[in-house]
Specification:
Helix content: 25-40%
CATH class of the largest domain: Alpha Beta
Number of domains: 4
CATH superfamily of the largest domain: Ribonuclease H-like superfamily/Ribonuclease H
Radius of gyration: 28 Å
Strand content: 15-25%
Largest sheet: 5 strands, mixed
Strand order of the largest sheet: 3-2-1-4-5
Shape: elongated
CATH topology of the largest domain: Nucleotidyltransferase, domain 5
Number of strands: 16
Number of helices: 16
CATH architecture of the largest domain: 2-Layer Sandwich
Distance between the termini: 57 Å
């Protein structure tokens, strides 16, 4: 049995958006057995551009049931059925997120009629619902309303079922999973890192997701590229680690790929960061920059796989901020650097420009490479409501992450750092952390 579903929403991102309407059509593969449709009060304003698209206004939903009032009905209608939708990722993510807000883990197998249409009905100019239905002669009444689009999807679904039967194709039916049913059922719909193994127990792929279960289902049904099919056919087992924090999932994935170098993570597994950019003050008080091999405990500002990669980076930095090539150790002249003769250098190498003004430009050039402070902790959500995640930056270097109970005190930094699992720092890790901080302005950070 199938539950053909269409939703209307307040936006395009499930994590921020809410449902305004849902339609569910129960289908046995040959015909419709039951329909359900209701407006939903999103308990927030419906943007004007959404109202223009769907016709659903704030006034229309004012007295409609709230999601928690229809949640039980949705569970009953979809229980034991495959969730079918046109662009299923969109509709499924919104329904799943609404249930998540209620503390319920909504989990259904999915079929996307967009993907099936491309496989079973190739050659169409577009597979949007409006265009594919126009090509196939399917009339859509109430376009961009849940029941109208769901009914059209049901008619498209019947065409796909018939096409699949005539082709004797296995594309339509969910691929038989290489993983046992009890293993599949145990995969959590939580944030974390997952590990795929082949039949010999070799680790072949490491990934991360905010919904491990759904991401694994995507892998097991992916026939889009040769690499995806090759990997899917080799999967024989899976393990995972819940992280709670999306940032920790990103950091753990990156570290694990570099450590284990799985076969299907080719593009992400380079780990030989041999050279770094270092800054130091010389005897005259000038800040110097230098690309050098990473040795000992000195912490580079950033790292590079190859020396030449670092040298090119430093050349570009020197040009952009008018830095002296000699003080960047890119010019070996014993006197002033070559650029000083061309007046492209302001004379720091000859004493014409003093260290105070020169060092200001150096600090400005390397500022984006530094963290906001050399010592701080990032506090993020944990794996359950009773704990928090701690990510540690000490002396400008990422040292690892750990978990601590909610009753911690932010003043007890020794206790906070005691829980840290140690991990290596590198340029990819720094990029992940800085990018995550920039994207999440309300992230809790404790500067030490």
């Amino acid at each position: 049995m199938y539950a053909i579903i269409d939703v209307e929403t307040t936006g395009t991102a499930a994590v921020h958006g809410k449902l305004t309407e849902i339609a569910i059509i129960l289908h046995d593969g040959t015909g419709v057995s039951e329909t359900y449709n209701t407006l939903i009060n999103p308990e927030c304003n419906i943007p004007y551009h959404i109202t223009r698209l769907t016709g659903i206004t704030n006034e229309m939903v004012a007295n409609a049931p709230k999601f928690y009032e229809v949640a039980k009905k949705i569970i009953e209608l979809t229980a034991g059925k495959i969730f079918v939708a046109h662009n299923a990722t969109f509709d499924y993510s919104f329904v799943k997120e609404e249930f998540k807000r209620l503390g319920y883990d909504f989990k259904r197998k999915t079929i996307c009629t967009v993907k099936l249409g491309r496989k079973l009905l190739p050659g169409h100019r577009s597979y949007s619902l409006g265009n594919i239905c126009a090509d196939l002669g399917i009339e859509i009444t109430d376009r961009h309303r849940a029941i109208g689009d769901a009914l059209a999807t049901a008619k498209l679904f019947e065409i796909l079922v018939d096409r699949n039967a005539r082709l004797e194709s296995s594309l339509f039916v969910n691929h038989s999973s290489p993983l046992p049913k009890d293993k599949m059922d145990s995969i959590p719909s939580k944030t974390g890192v997952y590990y795929f193994y082949d039949s010999q127990g070799n680790l072949i792929y490491i990934g991360k997701s905010k919904d491990i279960h759904q991401r694994v289902l995507t892998h097991l049904s992916n026939s889009q590229t040769r690499k995806a099919i090759e990997m899917r056919d080799k999967i024989a087992d899976i393990s995972w680690e819940e992280t709670g924090s999306e940032l920790v999932a990103l950091l753990l994935e990156s570290s694990e790929i570099k450590k284990y170098k799985p076969l299907f993570n080719r593009s992400q597994r380079r780990s030989a960061f041999n050279f770094g950019l270092f800054a130091f003050e010389d005897g005259a008080g000038y800040l110097n920059l230098k690309i050098a091999k990473i040795e000992g405990e000195e912490i580079p500002l950033t790292t590079f796989h190859f020396q030449q990669e670092g040298i090119e980076f430093l050349h570009n930095l020197a040009q952009k901020f008018a830095l002296c090539k000699k003080l960047c150790h890119l010019d070996n002249n014993t006197a002033g650097c070559f650029n000083s003769q061309l007046h492209d250098c302001r004379g720091a190498c000859t004493g014409l420009e003093g260290p105070e003004s020169y060092n200001l430009r150096v600090n400005k050039s390397i500022h984006p490479l530094n963290y906001r402070s050399p010592n701080f902790l990032i506090i993020d959500q944990g794996r359950n409501p009773e704990e928090k995640t701690i990510i540690d930056i000490s002396n400008g270097r990422y040292t690892g992450f750990g978990y601590i109970s909610m009753d911690y005190t932010s003043h007890d930094t020794e206790l906070l750092r005691d829980c840290i699992r140690k991990y290596d720092d590198n340029r990819d890790i720094r990029s992940i952390i800085k990018g995550f901080i920039n994207r999440n302005k309300h992230l809790k950070i404790i500067e030490l």
